[in-house]
Amino acid sequence: MNDQVKPGQGTPVPALGVPTGTLAVPSDAATLQLLVQLLLSERQAALEERQEKQRANQVRDEQRRINAEYNVAEKNKAQAICTHKKGGKGIKGPRIDFAVYAHTFTDNVAYIRCQICGAKWRNQDTKEYLVRKGKKIENHTGIGWREALDMLSQSTNTPSSSEVKMAAQPIENSVSSLE
Q: Is the pLDDT reported for residue 162 higher than 70?
């Protein structure tokens, strides 16, 4: 009789001489080792994925920093060559009219800003340095607070300010007092 399984017949019989009552089941230690290897490979893949994301974020952050530095340098160049004057090209009148205005915030902090290039001058700024966030940085415009005030006096622009909260308490009226 043939040990091979024929199509359409009952249960298969092993052809290798292994008794039919025993199955080739791996031992518990081998199963555990396989499971541990599988878990370790999954952990390793997750770790590599996290490291790749972290590396990609670092590359993106570095490029963002480079872009920001470039944008600041370009803005500083534009502000350095700006005349801060109204009029553009064409026939110029004898009167100089600067495109600057003063803005005052609710806490009485003020600055003077150019409407063309966006340069800002605060009361601590000098021709040499601009004071920003408590630090002195080189003044790329060459204009300090005093010079900005002079430009402001030659401008036809009106000052602006933020809304100021009312200091007085509203008067409370009852319905009986209104009758």
A: yes
Q: What is the DSSP string of 19-84?
A: -TT---PPPHHHHHHHHHHHHHHHHHHHHHHHHHHHHHHHHHHHHHHHHHHHHHHHHHHHHHH---
Higher pLDDT residue, 73 or 171? 73
Instruction: Compute the residue count for the chain.
Output: 179
Nearest to 80 by CA among 129, 143, 152, 10: 143
- Name which residue leads in pLDDT, 16 or 27: 27
d(CA 5, CA 20): 13
**The two three-digit tokens of residue 174, written as one number:** 């009852």
**Cross-strand pairs, 121:** 112
Domain locations in the chain? 30-81, 100-161
